[in-house]
Amino acid sequence: MLFGGGLTRIWDELMGLAGSSRPYQEKIQTILDMVRKLTGTEACYLYFLDATGRRFMLEHIVAEPERERVVETEEALGVPVGTEDVRSVLGAPPLSLVRSPADEEARAVTTEAGTFYSMPLKQEGQLRGLIQIGPFPKGVPSKVKKRMAEIARPLSLALLQVKREEELKERARAIEARTRIGRRMLGSTLELDRFVSLLLDLSLKATKTEAGFVAVADPETRELTIRAAVNIPKEFLESVNLSPEDGLFEWPTEMGGAMFLRDWDFAQRMGVKSILAVPLMEDEEPLGVFALVNFGKSRPFTDYTVKLLATFAEQIKLVIHNARLFGQFTARYLDTLKALARALDARRPSTASHHQRVAEVAMKIARRLGLPEEEVEAIGTAGLIHDVGMCGIVEEEGILLDYEHPTIGASLVEILPLHPEVAQAVATHHEWFDGWGYPRGLKGEEISIGGRILALAEYVVEASTADEIRPALSTEKLVEEVKRRRGSQFDPQVVDAFLELPNP
């Protein structure tokens, strides 16, 4: 048992720290300081495996803060008394360590700082990091080995939980930052609505009008939808017809000037006392309507009001035009990536139409799961480009290093104003449900639903296609293999949805 409180107390303290709301560095510092005190050692170094899984990177150091211990060591080493930096006394630990098979077990290691006891940090049997304590001038005492063995499991759980939580927070912050920057740079729909709302508010204050609205045409359907409104009754918003053919206003055939009211009955029924609207047009194409409305009492609109509204309408038209241009760029860029993916497929007979087939299977599974059609389409788009990151891989000593191709592929689309599932599905389609995949080793719902669906869809396409090495699996054998991998490689609910498809 450990000290007075026993192992149960250690479990409780470590798990309590791991689950607390303290900052990341403070959690790590406190946990490592506990280890140092439990073992009576001067220093404790924490390493985590990097993304490649080949090296350990130094994450944190804690060292004996007591002045007496430092002074004693200083005198023994001939260091001037008063030196405060314990690392300068003990010797600087290496910033990184090359991973070796010996790291799988606890052992004594010799470093520049002296002999340390190194213990692996494991998660479900997988090596994730190292914790090293010491130094020991006369070898590692058996009681230290015993204590470290006793706390190995709770210590690993606590440190790896804290590390995973920080990684998820960093990923969320990065996604948020990319989204924020992308919207600012690319004039997204959200920014268009904010801009329109701002101009509407300015126009109401400048003209002392009580209400108003701005409608914008959908670039595909041409249908006009109100995107900003102030003090407009709900019934008005839900029932107004803005169609150029038979709607509320007569649309002019030429630019300039105000629109004429066509549907007098609707205006009277809604209690409209006065209304002024100017069109947003480009090459005689209706882009939208900017309207000011008074419900309380009739107030005539001046020529100044018409000119002001027309000026604001021109600004909105410019923003709409830029948004459409970027939409066209996005579509063409995606077409380029899809063509690049098809070119990859054409390299070998066994991969012909690979991306297209993966997309089709993925969309069937997504629909079977009952996902919204917008999300289904996004997963389909991700399927059409999921391996495009292979174009960015390099060859080293005759081996293609394709480990990061999901990340490379996602980086090609993540800044575009697309459904977030497109980039997320591409980035995670080689992750395994049990955490054994790559490149990040995500597990369960840490993997996006699109990534979990693409993982199975790609396996189904590849396994049912013969190549130079192996024949295609029969339907029966394919189903058997998919069931065998349920819960390990593949998400159980995704597998179940696939098996419910006609002729899976």
Please describe the topology of this protein.
Layout: H1 6-18, H2 24-39, E1 43-49, E2 55-63, H3 67-77, H4 86-90, E3 96-98, E4 107-111, E5 114-123, E6 126-134, H5 142-186, H6 189-207, E7 211-217, E8 224-230, H7 234-239, E9 249-250, E10 260-261, H8 264-269, E11 274-282, E12 285-294, H9 303-345, H10 354-368, H11 373-385, E13 394-396, E14 399-401, H12 405-411, H13 420-428, H14 449-463, H15 475-484, H16 492-499
Antiparallel strand pairs: 1-2, 1-6, 2-3, 4-5, 5-6, 7-8, 7-12, 9-10, 11-12, 13-14
Helix pairs in contact: 1-5, 2-5, 6-9, 10-11, 10-14, 11-13, 11-14, 12-13, 13-14
Strand order of the largest sheet: 3-2-1-6-5-4
CATH hierarchy, class of the largest domain? Alpha Beta
- Overall, the morphology is elongated
Give the name of the CATH architecture of the largest domain.
Answer: 2-Layer Sandwich
Mean pLDDT, to the nearest integer, reads 82
Low-confidence runs: 1-5, 66-90, 180-190
Strand content: 15-25%
Largest sheet: 6 strands, antiparallel
Give helix and strand order, one letter per element, not per position: HHEEHHEEEEHHEEHEEHEEHHHEEHHHHH
Number of strands: 14
The CATH topology of the largest domain is what?
Beta-Lactamase
